[in-house]
Design a protein that fits this description.
By secondary structure, this protein is an alpha+beta fold. It has helices spanning 32-42, 85-101, 205-225, 230-246, 259-271; strands spanning 13-20, 23-29, 48-53, 58-64, 71-77, 113-116, 122-125, 128-131, 135-143, 146-154, 159-165, 169-170, 184-187, 198-201.
């Protein structure tokens, strides 16, 4: 019996696995923050711990038995990420150890997810097929811990691009901020520091859409690149964006004017990264 609940739709991410001229396939995955949040939620922040061995290759996740006070441990091995290899190993081994505890184990029951070329934007990128669309899980259904329904949205088109089975739970839409809220949202426009950014009021609907898109993508970027400092992540993003522009892969190096352009820029980075974390 699994002591942990199944993942909500908004806790599941999508990653492009393979691209062909007639479409692409997706994989479902979770990030380390999801594991941390669920451990805190279910057992409490003071009742679990993680340890790393073999230079971060292995992670041991231990949970305290509430009846005996004994620590019960489960362990697994991770693989390196494209950048910051040590952090990548630590994050991946942690996520795998959490799979052993049952967190997100239902993702292994996902169906084969195929998105036809008519529902996404596939392009020829210097002789290789590429897609810069961003996909999110909009709804999901489970029966006895097995995925029995799935709905995926293409954020670039704003449309549902995959639907299978019975959907029992949908990801909530992000709440609108009050028009009179004084908050300012910072959006990077050109390579450099945050001081070079444009500031758009939260009440501006178009600006908010771009801000939400950048924030969501930056969170994923930090997870993929295994960067924990936001300033470091922004600096790395700007460096890669400048290289993409110099290579002619993206056409704009100024302020990003739409959520779609934000998605395209981030996905262009992922599509052109080498195993060493540099652009091809």
């Amino acid at each position: 019996m699994n002591m942990f609940r199944t993942l909500r739709a908004d806790e599941i991410d999508c990653r492009i696995a393979q691209i062909k001229e007639n479409g692409l396939s997706l994989l479902l995955y979770k990030d380390a923050r999801c594991d941390q949040n669920i451990l805190d939620e279910v057992v409490g922040p003071f009742n679990w711990k993680r340890e790393h061995t073999r230079d971060n290759k292995n992670c041991i996740v231990s949970i305290k038995n509430p009846e005996t006070g004994e620590w019960i441990s489960k362990e697994d091995t991770g693989t390196e990420s494209n950048t910051e290899k040590e952090k990548g190993l630590a994050s991946d081994s942690f996520k795998r150890a959490c799979f052993n505890w049952g967190i997100g184990r239902e993702l292994y029951t996902a169906p084969f997810i195929w998105i036809g070329a008519d529902k996404c934007n596939i392009k020829d990128n210097r002789g290789r097929m590429a897609c810069y669309d961003r996909f999110t899980v909009k709804g999901i259904g489970y029966t006895d811990g097995v995925i029995t329904g799935l709905e995926i949205k293409n954020q670039a088109t704003g449309k549902i691009c995959y639907k299978w089975g019975e959907i029992k739970e949908e990801a909530p839409d992000k709440p609108e901020k009050p028009d009179d809220e004084p908050e300012k949202i910072v959006i990077p426009d050109i390579p450099g520091t945050v001081s070079t950014a444009s500031k758009i009021p939260a009440g501006d609907s178009s600006g908010r859409a771009v801000s939400d898109a950048f924030g969501d993508n930056m969170n994923e970027f930090m997870e993929r690149m295994e960067i924990t400092d936001s300033k470091e992540a922004l600096k790395r993003f700007n460096e890669l964006r400048k290289k993409l522009f110099d290579a002619g892969i993206i056409k704009n190096i100024g302020k990003m004017k739409s959520a779609e352009e934000v998605d395209i820029t981030f996905n262009a980075i992922y599509a052109n990264l080498t195993p060493a974390g540099e652009l091809k």
